[in-house]
Design a protein that fits this description.
Layout lengths: L3 E10 L4 E9 L2 E7 L3 H4 L5 E4 L4 E4 L1 E6 L4 E2 L2 E2 L4 H10 L2 E9 L6 H12 L6 E7 L5 H12 L4 E5 L10 H14 L2 E5 L3 H13 L6 H6 L2 H18 L3 E3 L5 H12 L4 E5 L1 H5 L2 H4 L19 H12 L4 E2 L32 H10 L5 H15 L17 E11 L18 E11 L2 E4 L24
Parallel strand pairs: 1-4, 1-5, 6-9, 9-10, 10-11, 11-12, 12-13, 13-14, 14-15
Antiparallel strand pairs: 1-2, 2-3, 5-16, 7-8, 16-17, 17-18
Helix pairs in contact: 4-5, 5-8, 8-9
Length: 467
């Protein structure tokens, strides 16, 4: 561990403030901030000085929804914890929260141990875990209490994927009742999977096999219906609810209504829903398969409502749901049958830059950028102010960001272990220049200087919006 670092002359942006300040880092933490050019700032001494003049100094991104090495549809997500966390760092993200999976017939602990084994010693940045609950029974419910005590404080359930991850309403209610008692947060994949399976079967019987039909059968109304049902079940259980990857304006309306009623209901969306649409799913020559994810991409008119939700705080977080599958050999498993295309998009490296582009385009403010990408996910999942902000005592997870640099997104230059980019050819203004994780340089002036094993497991407290 280097002793002290000082970052001079940058514009420090957090969710609450923008200030021209110098930042002193000591022993992996933020030690002090002082307005640039003041005697207090001049008094900062350090072995290493980073010049951030003309740049932003922002907290490292917190991506609270990733799937490294996830088994799905007979294959595995193509990013390992090593490649995925390195790519995250290149994109200015310094903490991920990934999903450990309980398989049906097995315990939560067994799943969690398996994910610890995948991640330990392999991560370039810090990481935590949520727990996917696929099999609700008395043992599972007891294990939920134990996991909350040791810092795995959120549990994901699926109203989709019957036969794989699916939970019925009774199982969901039981898990919600348990989380109401133990302080955990239920995360919900809200789509009516039972109804969707009927529509899939009918589409395939009509010979509608192309990727674009993936978006047509997974109807926005079935996302809204499931979102509504999840909210009501949480209300019955007296539990908070976090709805993942919200993609449809009708689902946003359900969340807004619940929040207007004062319910502890939260929502996340992802860059793919803000920047891509069903037009991508319809790309010819099976190219549309690159954009198959669930919830699916929606028609373009949904985007304005998602941006509005982010501005009004009806949506609080932007995560990636990073779950990459290569076009060659993985997405191609679904040629001739869209239902066999592995669901997921690569994005962990692109999130911070795409959201900065949203600042440039006038969708959100600079502080809101940091709020939805750093501070809110850290608060939502019990890591604030250790993560998600720049304040004395916080981990020195800091990004020097050049707001004027221009880049073109491409699979040729990205660092994710996948053979295509969902944003190929997109021009962006703004780029990560230097990244520190707990005071250590992971990216140094656009060069990777980190290493596998630097990242450590981060236990989390309960949702900080409920305290």
């Amino acid at each position: 561990m280097t002793g002290r670092t000082v970052i001079r002359g940058g514009l420090v942006i957090t969710a609450s403030d923008e200030i021209h300040a110098d930042v002193l880092i000591e022993d992996g933490r933020i030690a002090a901030l002082a307005a640039s050019g003041t005697p207090a700032a001049e008094a900062f001494t350090a072995e290493r000085t980073i010049d951030a003049t003309g740049k932003y100094v922002i907290p490292g991104g917190v991506d609270a929804h990733t799937h490294m090495e996830l088994p799905f549809g007979g294959t595995f997500a193509s990013d390992t914890f090593e490649t995925g966390t390195r790519a995250a760092a290149w994109g200015g993200t310094t903490t991920i929260v990934d999903f450990a999976v309980q398989s049906v017939g097995h315990g939560l602990r067994e799943g969690l141990d398996a994910w610890h084994a995948k991640a330990e010693g392999n991560c370039a940045i810090d990481y935590g875990f949520h727990m996917i609950v696929s099999d609700v029974n008395q043992e599972t419910l007891k294990e939920m209490d134990l996991l909350v005590e040791e810092g795995v404080t959120s549990f994901k359930q699926f109203m989709a994927y019957p036969g794989v991850f699916y939970s019925d309403d009774g199982q969901i209610l039981r898990a919600m009742q348990r989380s109401a008692e133990n302080g955990g947060l239920i995360m919900m994949h809200a789509e009516n999977g039972i109804a969707i399976d009927v529509l899939v079967e009918q589409a395939l019987a009509r010979g509608e096999t192309d990727p674009r039909y993936h978006g047509e059968v997974r109807k926005a109304l079935l996302e809204a219906e499931a979102t509504h049902r999840a909210i009501k079940l949480a209300q019955v259980a007296g539990a908070p609810l976090y709805v993942v990857h919200v993609s449809a304006m009708e689902a946003v309306a359900e969340l807004a209504r619940a929040r207007d009623e004062g319910l502890p209901v939260f929502g996340e969306t992802c860059p793919q829903y803000l920047f891509l649409s069903t037009g991508n799913l319809a790309e010819p020559d099976f190219e549309g398969s690159k954009y198959v994810c669930s919830t699916p991409l929606r028609p373009k008119e949904h985007q304005a409502k998602l941006w509005q939700g982010l501005r009004t705080n009806d949506l609080q977080v932007v995560s990636t749901d990073h779950c990459p599958f290569c076009f060659v050999g993985q997405k191609e498993l679904g040629r001739g049958d869209f239902s066999k295309i592995p669901n997921g998009l690569p994005g962990v490296e692109n999130r911070m830059d795409l959201l900065h582009q949203a600042v440039v385009d006038g969708h959100i403010s600079r502080r809101r950028w940091i709020e939805i990408a750093c501070a809110s996910p850290a608060r939502m999942f019990g890591m604030y102010p250790k993560k998600g902000t720049i304040t004395p005592g916080a981990d020195a997870d800091v990004v020097i960001y050049d707001p004027h640099a221009e880049q073109v997104v491409s699979a040729e230059t990205h660092h994710m272990n996948v053979d295509y980019s969902a944003y190929e050819g997109k021009r962006l203004t703004g780029r990560v220049e230097t990244v520190l994780s707990r005071g250590e340089l992971v990216i140094t002036e656009r060069e990777y200087t980190g290493h596998a094993g630097h990242g450590v497991y981060t236990p989390r407290s309960t949702c900080q919006y409920l305290n």
